Amino acid sequence: MTGHTFLFNSFVHKAKELTTDERFGTPVYFHATRTNFGPFRQDVNAYWDLAPHDISILLFCFPELRPRWVSCVATCVGTGALTAPHLEDIGLLTIGFDDTGFIGHVHCSWLIPGRER
Question: Is 45 exposed, middle or buried (0-12, 13-18, 19+ CB in 10 A)?
Answer without folding.
Answer: buried
